[in-house]
Amino acid sequence: MGGHEEEARARACLTAVVRPGDPWLGALLAEHGAARVWAALRAREAPPPLETEEDPTDEERALQRWRGWAHKSLAVDADALLARSAEAGVRFVAPGDPEWPGRLDERPGGRDCHGLWVRGHGDLRNLCLRSVGIVGARAASPYGEYVASELAHGLAERSFTVVSGGAYGIDGAAHRAAMTTGRTVAVLACGLDVDYPRGHAGLFTEVARHGALVSERPVGRTPRAPDFLIRNRLIAALTSGTVVVEAGRRSGALNTAAHADELHRVLMAVPGPVTSATSVGCHRLLKEGRAVCVTGVDDVVEQIAPLDELSTMGGPLPVHTDLSAETARVLAAVGTRGAGTAGVARASGEGLEQTMRSLGLLAAAGLVERSPTGWRRPPSGRS
Predict the structure, then answer these.
(1) 325-376: which CATH architecture?
(2) Most exposed residue of 64, 91, 146, 215, measured as fewest CB within 10 angstroms of its CB?
(3) DSSP tag of 215
(4) b/e map 166-196, b = 16+ CB within 10 Å
(5) 2 or 124, higher pLDDT
(6) What is the pTM of this model?
(7) CA-CA distance, 63 to 59, in Å (whole number)?
(8) Which CATH code fits 117-309?
């Protein structure tokens, strides 16, 4: 087994015993590698030492967590875990994989996401290159759902991927509207074979067809209350910016907004009626100057896209002609019928890694797109 494959396999196993977002585990993985950490857990050994302790005063608590992980690790069968995942159409994406979204490495420390489980036809990295998060209240008002739908539909029309959390209310409205014209990503707090909420089972099937479902939890895991707050950091990290459509005084959407603010991503909020309890959080973000006020898709695009790249506020970003020689060859190899990444690489004469990088850049510029048959040039009039 190759070095990267062994590391990815160990990281997949770790998701079955460690709750997402543990910074101490992230430090261990960065210094010693997942394979060594996993082997130490299985052997009931002491944790490998860190050259720089992130919080020496918390050592006893860390050791308690380690002992708990070691106990749980004995019940993990790596082959069975990966087989169950494959049967459910779920794949594991580790740091260093071509599909790994580079934006996750921009988080403070860059180490608290240890791996992702992904289900769907879309390539996660390319989906997230040009993406916007839309979040808000579960108990959304008709006004909020209407605004979320209009924003998501307009962004998808302009080749932005809409990222949200798969919940009732604003999330569901955003996912559905995005799929009418484009792509969407749902970041879930449970295993990707678990439909939570149950009423969104059909929605999740459609999201997998039009983009991807993402989770840090392995198959079979049902969510607990803290898992939703933990996953919110991924919505903020995967996107260029986040729009809060509706949020109550203590809404989980405000937690997503805090992560976006921490990452220096663009944070936007939609104003609502001053009498609406579901807009109190949005108004607070605007009053405190933490979010930019947006009232339509044009406002969002203006905030997300570099101003010198905008031709008109009503259309897609213009085509660039200053492509590198490698990327130009990849573009020339993409036809209108669709081809897989490997096929484009062969036709262009470029390596697979370079081809994937170039396709990501071309997709972000609107020059190519993913279709059920593979990479293709957009239909006439859309590029």
Answers:
(1) Orthogonal Bundle (1.10)
(2) 64
(3) E
(4) bbebbbbbbbbbbbeebbbbbbbbbbbbbbb
(5) 124
(6) 0.80
(7) 6
(8) 3.40.50.450
